[in-house]
Amino acid sequence: MLVAATVCAGSVAARPWQAPSRSGAGATSDAVGQGMFASSCAGCHGLDGRGGERAPGVVANARVQRMSDSEISGIISNGIPDTGMPAFHALSPEQVRAIVQYLRSLQGQEKAEPLPGDPVRGKAVFFGKGECSSCHMMRGEGGFLGPDLSTYGSARPANSISDAIVNPARVPDPAFRMAVATTRNGERISGIVRNEDNFSVQLQTADGAFHFLSRSDLRKLDYQSKPAMPTNYGDKLGRKELDDLVSYIISVGRKAKPDAASAGEDLHEEDFQ
Fold this sequence. Notes:
two-stranded antiparallel sheet, SH3 type barrels, 7 strands, disordered N terminus, Cytochrome Bc1 Complex, Chain D, domain 2, alpha+beta
């Protein structure tokens, strides 16, 4: 199915799909879809759709969940050009629909875990003591120096979100790399690197202003090796406050409307690799 590992594509191409045996005319559509998923998709995405050695899961993947049935069907039938995701031209439209229906049934089995805390109190932490909103946007409110977190909690478990807060990535995300530019007249400008080339660099400072700087006008440009995300939340927030914050992030993600969350978003290769 949604396969993008080259080795996986090769194995699928070498072994044509064969319809699973059916014990009678009354076999359910889910049973048919399960058999085809097992023979065509599970080798890469796992029997339960949660991922394998060759490709990630397609059950809890938020982008896949937001896709329409027709979009998923198109990917199964036509593949993704220039990636390892093959086209399953041998499958009939009915067979593709059966696979999609089975995938939807797997996604429907994903039960929302209970929230570890109070999302109302967590909102107060996000916009208050935690100062998360100084960098992150949440449903149109907050900063923009960090990623928008409006849909971050839609498919991530509470412990994963908590760990990301307490133990942020040691390597800065290239999309949110900080730098300090020092001009020839001594002015220092610190911000997120939004764009750069051999001749210029564009920084966005905390007040939202964009600074277009010519490299010839700079004395030096220091890239920050540490992530902009604070590393002291384990000390700054108590356990209960952290649980409340995580609950707020999850609750907002669950309420995010699929159409709004996916508006303007293109499919990314990494969603199928």
